[in-house]
């Protein structure tokens, strides 16, 4: 290693001959990362160099050297490939797609904010699932033609690169990235000067940022970067690393993302003529300040009041919550936020009311804390979790924000995550799909017919992908061992793993709830499984611990140490630096993908979906997506020990169940062969690829976001904005009116004298409710009768029917009578309740204001 360290690096781009000129555009559009042909084109320019520079076309063009480029320019076949790829890219960027054919009103432009984006291994701007999901969201939006712009930060050192020392302890390195060298371009003024965003901070400081544009197919991704000469040294470090610091550093990143992000989108629209976004999507709470910035815009530019601006922002905002784990949610000291709200950063915004939007001022909350998820839910009228189960868990977790509202009515829906097929499906499966079905996407095909894809062919491809993983594991471990200690590589490392052995994969970030070391619970039992002389099992593990999380590093160390044991080494291996590049080899190369989180803390999980699309079977706790889509034939469910009295007991029970499944289900099925083929196993593989191919893709996910959240949000935005914000003003006045009156709204009595003791199905009963509206109009309030079966606690079942009662006439002495008839269709123990809620056509949910009054 050289002793002189460069303090800056930069790339000198070569001059391309006219025949090779399209390579520039092909290299700078990240579509190359999921297009096999473009990827292969760049790799073929110099396969060894391609690996060495980390598989990135822009770096490749910078590294090749003029001589080789001149050779290629004179190579007619190569030039013809360049031209063909350029034509394909052009067609991809301009053709009509799903979104253009979608009928009805739809958003003109969606701005999608996320703290991390996982697009490719050579752009390490992600730490795990949240970022990869955001990357896949952009790619599917591109494939579907959705007019979306991504907004994030450019972290100069990205997330860290992991290596493992002799002692099994995680080491972190932060290589600096050169955005030019990666093919990013700066957003510029017409005169060529870089556009800079500025944020006024307390203490008369100003945070400046430039805006990089990464083209993700048809989708621009804007990345704000504080590394500019306009900033002080201190402020240049704001975007140094992803999730690097805590406290103010983290807050500055989130202010830059939210506030700076909105300003960057405005500048981008002005520079390119893109319409202003009518929908803003906040991917997790970190970008929540975008809503406050937009309120500030409405107040200063359109003269709206705080309440009107809030109504307008809520209408057009989609908020996605991604975790039920408290540590995953950003919480800041109230006073710290207050200092930024009064610094002049948010012009025109009442700091006291703005602060209230994020305070945990509910039962069980900490009023000294400003919570970004709370802010997100207050600013986003359209909110969702990321799997059915996570939706349910989120409704419970955030229910305190809607006091008095039944958990199942809390206005948070769910859209289950998905993964981008063209990125995550291995080229070998794509090729097979192309041969058998005529297209490479490999999703939404019926893989069950052995006449279309024979057992030999499918098993052959599965085997080739395993061979690749084994070779890669040997290569990486050899490199890792030679880099530490004596540098001598023992022979067991060179012969690590066996492609014929049942291979289980497990890789993810290493927070405690994911239980990296659950498999080590009973080391003897695990050793027996790994070393069975006839039918052994092997395990490939990976994962990064957050640099500040020593408890995660201890888990990694335990695993590494176990894997070095004489008896088991070679059969269990920890591969360092789990990232997109490793993941693309790891998922297809495993027979089984394991996931054993503490239920229900895994909001969704997506690695198992990527494995499934490549024909791996899942072995998982019924959490996240697996709880929804496990069907008995696509893998195995590890039973959850819900009745365990403590964590230790629970881990023991779940680990025992895991070993049992491996020993009694996986091993026999995998090793049962007919003519060398595991028929039953392959049947499960075919079933997995067919069934999960229909559901587990981010194309399905993005279509769901468009139809269920973006279209309604855009409709609300338009409705509120029309005629000089007439409806926004009306809605804000309504909200103020009902909030003021609500404490006195009271259901005086419910007259159900018509109900006999012995009711019979078919009877029709009349219900009359006398409600004191305290000055509200009868049509400001919906008086609802809910009826259905009751349980032993007299609680109404979830399938209850809700029926709206109508005012019977004008108020008498301040009391309005509402009536309705109730046909008794449900038999058995039956009950009803009456409640009053505010009602307005532009509310998404009847309980979204958190105002509900029940009859007692
Ligand atoms: C998909 C992916 C993840 C997320 O997987 P989970 O199942 O949610 O843990 C994390 N890291 C990488 C590199 C991935 O590709």
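^ Assign residues to that structure.
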């Amino acid at each position: 290693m050289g002793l002189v360290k460069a303090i800056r690096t930069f790339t000198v781009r070569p001059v391309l001959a006219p025949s090779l000129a399209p390579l520039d555009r092909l290299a700078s559009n990240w579509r190359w990362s999921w297009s096999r042909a473009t990827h292969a084109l760049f790799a073929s320019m110099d396969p060894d160099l391609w690996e060495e520079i980390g598989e990135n076309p822009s770096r490749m063009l910078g590294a090749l050297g003029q001589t080789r480029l001149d050779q290629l320019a004179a190579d007619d076949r190569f030039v013809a490939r360049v031209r063909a790829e350029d034509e394909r890219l052009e067609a991809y960027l301009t053709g009509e797609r799903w979104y253009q054919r979608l009928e009805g009103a739809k958003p003109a432009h969606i701005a999608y904010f996320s703290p991390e984006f996982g697009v490719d291994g050579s752009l390490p701007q992600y730490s795990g699932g949240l970022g990869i999901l955001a990357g896949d969201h952009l790619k599917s939006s591109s494939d579907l033609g959705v007019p979306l712009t991504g907004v994030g930060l450019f972290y100069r050192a990205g997330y860290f690169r992991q290596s493992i020392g002799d002692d099994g302890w995680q080491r972190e390195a932060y290589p600096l990235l050169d955005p030019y060298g990666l093919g990013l371009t700066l957003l510029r003024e017409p005169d060529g000067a870089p556009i800079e965003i500025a944020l006024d901070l307390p203490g008369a400081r100003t945070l400046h940022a430039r805006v990089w544009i990464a083209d993700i197919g048809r989708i621009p991704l804007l990345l704000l970067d504080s590394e500019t000469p306009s900033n002080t040294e201190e402020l240049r470090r704001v975007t140094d690393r992803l999730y690097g610091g805590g406290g103010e550093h983290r807050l500055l990143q989130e202010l830059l993302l939210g506030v700076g992000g909105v300003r960057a989108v405005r500048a981008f629209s002005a520079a390119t003529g893109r319409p202003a976004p009518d929908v803003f999507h906040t991917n997790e709470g970190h970008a929540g300040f975008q809503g406050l910035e937009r309120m500030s815009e409405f107040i200063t530019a359109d003269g709206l009041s705080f309440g009107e601006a809030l109504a307008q922002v809520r209408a057009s905002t989609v908020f996605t919550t991604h975790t039920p784990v408290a540590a995953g949610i950003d919480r800041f000291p109230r006073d710290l936020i207050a200092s930024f709200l009064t610094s002049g950063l948010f012009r025109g915004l009442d700091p006291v009311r703005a602060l209230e939007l994020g305070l945990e001022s509910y039962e069980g909350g900490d009023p000294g804390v400003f919570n970004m998820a709370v802010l997100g839910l207050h600013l986003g009228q359209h909110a969702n979790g990321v799997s059915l189960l996570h939706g349910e868990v989120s409704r419970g977790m955030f229910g305190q924000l809607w006091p008095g509202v039944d958990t199942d009515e809390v206005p948070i829906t769910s859209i289950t995550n998905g993964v981008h097929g063209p990125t995550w499906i291995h080229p070998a499966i794509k090729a097979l799909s192309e041969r058998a079905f005529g297209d490479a996407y490999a999703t939404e095909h019926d893989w069950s017919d052995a006449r279309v894809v024979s057992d030999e062919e499918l098993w052959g491809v599965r085997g080739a992908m395993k061979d690749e993983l084994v070779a890669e594991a040997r290569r990486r471990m050899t490199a890792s061992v030679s880099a530490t200690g004596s540098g001598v590589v023992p022979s067991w490392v060179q012969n690590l793993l066996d492609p014929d052995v049942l291979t289980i994969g497990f890789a993810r970030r290493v927070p405690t709830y994911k239980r990296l070391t659950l498999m080590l619970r009973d080391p003897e039992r695990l050793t027996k499984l790994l070393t069975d002389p006839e039918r052994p099992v092997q395990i490939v593990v990976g994962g990064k611990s957050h640099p500040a999380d020593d408890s995660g590093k201890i888990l990694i160390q335990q695993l590494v140490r176990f894997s070095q044991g004489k008896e088991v080494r070679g059969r269990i291996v920890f591969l360092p630096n789990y990232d997109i590049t490793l993941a693309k080899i790891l998922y297809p190369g495993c027979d089984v993908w394991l996931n054993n989180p503490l239920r229900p803390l895994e909001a969704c999980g997506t690695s198992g979906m990527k494995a499934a699309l490549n024909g791996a079977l899942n072995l998982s706790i019924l959490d996240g997506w697996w709880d929804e889509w496990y069907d008995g034939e696509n893998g195995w469910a590890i039973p959850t020990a819900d009745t365990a009295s403590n964590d230790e007991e629970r881990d023991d029970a779940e680990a025992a169940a895991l070993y049992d499944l491996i020993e009694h289900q996986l091993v026999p099925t995998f090793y049962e062969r007919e003519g060398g083929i595991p028929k039953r196993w392959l049947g499960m593989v075919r079933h997995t690829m067919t069934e999960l191919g229909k559901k587990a893709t981010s194309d399905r996910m993005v279509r769901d976001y468009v139809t269920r959240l973006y279209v309604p949000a855009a409709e609300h935005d338009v409705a509120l904005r029309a005629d000089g914000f007439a409806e926004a003003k009306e809605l804000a006045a309504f909200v103020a009116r009902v909030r003021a009156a609500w404490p006195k709204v009271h259901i005086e009595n419910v007259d159900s004298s018509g109900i006999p003791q012995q009711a019979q199905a078919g009877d029709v009963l009349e219900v009359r409710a006398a409600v004191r509206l305290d000055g509200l109009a009868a049509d400001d309030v919906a008086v609802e009768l809910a009826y259905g079966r009751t349980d032993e606690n007299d609680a109404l079942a979830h399938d209850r029917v809700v029926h709206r009662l109508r005012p019977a006439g004008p108020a008498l002495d301040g009391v309005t009578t509402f009536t309705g008839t109730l046909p008794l269709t449900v038999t058995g123990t039956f009950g009803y309740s009456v409640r009053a809620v505010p009602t307005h056509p532009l509310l998404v949910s009847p309980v979204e204001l958190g105002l509900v009054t029940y009859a007692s």
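The chain has four domains: 18-94, 98-418+709-717, 421-696, 745-854.
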